[in-house]
Amino acid sequence: MFISHNFEMDSFSQNPEFTIHSFFTFLDTSIMAVEFEGGVVIGADSRTTTGAYIANRVTDKLTPIHERIFCCRSGSAADTQAIADAVTYQLGFHSIELDEAPLVQTAASLFRDMCYRYREELMAGIIVAGWDPRRGGQVYTVPVGGMMTRQPVSVGGSGSSYIYGYVDSNYRAGMSKEECLKFTAEALTLAMERDGSSGGVVRLAVISEQGVERQVILGNQLPKFSTV
Amino acid sequence: MASVSVCQYHSGGFSFENCKRNALLEADINKLGFSSPAARKTGTTICGVVYKDGVVLGADTRATEGMVVADKNCSKIHYISPNIYCCGAGTAADTEMTTQIISSNLELHSLSTGRLPRVTTANRMLKQMLFRYQGYIGAALVLGGVDCNGPHLYSIYPHGSTDKLPYVTMGSGSLAAMAVFEDRYRPNMEEEEAKRLVRDAIAAGIFNDLGSGSNIDLCVITKGNVDYLRPHDMANKKGVREDKVYGRPVTGSYRYKHGTTGVLTKAVTPLNLEVVEESVQTMDTS
């Protein structure tokens, strides 16, 4: 998943002059979002890597874009932070102009416009999720390349490859909030177990008309599956 | 990533044409067998920790140019504003200039708002500038300070991503320093404990990483006060040449005393030289 532009990936231990800045910081990740009646549940792991070193083991990849709209970031840390900051500004301005809460679709469109226009330069896979008064809870996925589509459940990041089967077989329409939380936590745990670039803690958030509730599941509290 | 695109010249934004040219020149020079001059890097171990009353920043003081130490006592903790300081790792010129530019802009901003600048403002300015240059400015920074919202600590990477954490390390010695932090960090430490922790983390980098060395600088920032301790710990003081070894004087001079070599025989032969011809030539000194 590494794309080296003009840098050479120096061998970690051989080069005594090694400085970490010759690598990109990546959010190779597991992120997930699920719609339910009345809102959305979003979740992410907490690992940021530069090469084989974990630069931040408690990253918060669930970034608020507006009061009831969040985005889950995967890909290049610098690119996604810059995009999220830009969209936060644009959406805030738009919301003040309209004098009402912005739509989740608007936020997703802003992400899509930026990710598509600069698709050659950027490396960003983003899931936009939130609640608005018009259409309730929604999840939009904007993967690398700049496509945008609405999905009831969406997974992203390098760890997502390992849980497509689990998600496809365990998702049911019409789950409750608690069931969605359990589903997300278990799916992310499985992804973190198998993907080297995902790990740390599981951060969850529930976005609904009432607002945002955030929670953290620490490493030793993660759901346990059979160990081989 | 293959894409079908109509070749359009970008009208605005930074032009990276020279970077491509430099890469080609580098390849050509290497083919001829020469090597292009190495940029001076700061190798480095830098770190920061948030404690009860503020932040403690630490840095080593070695600057390297390839495999040679260019500066044995350089200063890596840069001033940003009276309440914000920034440690820099990576290319020495980049960290120096970047911190100076942001310091200048922040002072103007502070005069405009009439308030003491906030650490998050400095963070925003730094990350937006570094992202604009897409990582070509090789500056990895540890930014720390105390403002109206309390103590804050950020790590900023050359591509423009930032992390806000209670303890951070950067540079080639960052793994050694982080090992010390992960072992001994506690939230809400006292000042002395925090200073000892940062000192030990930098020492771990100095003694286990070839790119870091010399002394340990510390900067303790609290509300309304900054202690810039340079040097805080001279961990690698240059030795003094010994005057006596085993009681016998050892000096730098290689002159031996008269009588060191015993004289066995002495023969004097006078040479009778006659003056044959003598001529005087005057010099024209007008």
TrEMBL record, chain A:
Gene3D superfamilies: Glutamine Phosphoribosylpyrophosphate, subunit 1, domain 1. The 26S proteasome consists of a 20S proteasome core and two 19S regulatory subunits. The 20S proteasome core is composed of 28 subunits that are arranged in four stacked rings, resulting in a barrel-shaped structure. The two end rings are each formed by seven alpha subunits, and the two central rings are each formed by seven beta subunits. The catalytic chamber with the active sites is on the inside of the barrel. Component of the immunoproteasome, where it displaces the equivalent housekeeping subunit PSMB6. Component of the proteasome complex. This is Proteasome subunit beta. InterPro entries: Ntn_hydrolases_N, Pept_T1A_subB, Proteasome_bsu_CS, Proteasome_sua/b, Proteasome_suB-type. The keyword Metal-binding does not apply. Its main location: cytoplasm. Keywords: Cytoplasm, Hydrolase, Immunity, Nucleus, Protease, Proteasome, Threonine protease, Zymogen. PANTHER family: METALLOPROTEASE TLDD, PROTEASOME SUBUNIT BETA. It comes from Sinocyclocheilus anshuiensis. GO terms for cellular component: cytoplasm; nucleus; proteasome core complex. It comes from the Eukaryota. The proteasome is a multicatalytic proteinase complex which is characterized by its ability to cleave peptides with Arg, Phe, Tyr, Leu, and Glu adjacent to the leaving group at neutral or slightly basic pH. The proteasome has an ATP-dependent proteolytic activity. This subunit is involved in antigen processing to generate class I binding peptides. One of its GO terms (molecular function) is threonine-type endopeptidase activity. The active site is at 29 (nucleophile). The keyword Chaperone does not apply. Belongs to the peptidase T1B family. It is found in: Cytoplasm; Nucleus. One of its GO terms (biological process) is proteolysis involved in protein catabolic process. It catalyses: Cleavage of peptide bonds with very broad specificity.
From TrEMBL, chain B:
GO terms for biological process: proteolysis involved in protein catabolic process. It catalyses: Cleavage of peptide bonds with very broad specificity. It is found in: Cytoplasm; Nucleus. GO terms for molecular function: threonine-type endopeptidase activity. The active site is at residue 44. One of its GO terms (cellular component) is nucleus. PROSITE patterns: PROTEASOME_BETA_1, PROTEASOME_BETA_2. Residues 252-280 form the Proteasome beta subunit C-terminal domain. InterPro entries: Ntn_hydrolases_N, Pept_T1A_subB, Proteasome_bsu_C, Proteasome_bsu_CS, Proteasome_sua/b, Proteasome_suB-type. The keyword Hydrolase applies. Pfam families: Pr_beta_C (PF12465), Proteasome (PF00227). It comes from the Eukaryota. Signal peptide: none annotated. Transmembrane segments: none annotated. Keywords: Cytoplasm, Hydrolase, Nucleus, Protease, Proteasome, Threonine protease. Component of the proteasome complex. Belongs to the peptidase T1B family. The proteasome is a multicatalytic proteinase complex which is characterized by its ability to cleave peptides with Arg, Phe, Tyr, Leu, and Glu adjacent to the leaving group at neutral or slightly basic pH. The proteasome has an ATP-dependent proteolytic activity. This subunit is involved in antigen processing to generate class I binding peptides. Component of the proteasome, a multicatalytic proteinase complex which is characterized by its ability to cleave peptides with Arg, Phe, Tyr, Leu, and Glu adjacent to the leaving group at neutral or slightly basic pH. The proteasome has an ATP-dependent proteolytic activity. This is Proteasome subunit beta. The lineage of its organism: Eukaryota, Metazoa, Chordata, Craniata, Vertebrata. The gene is LOC107662369.
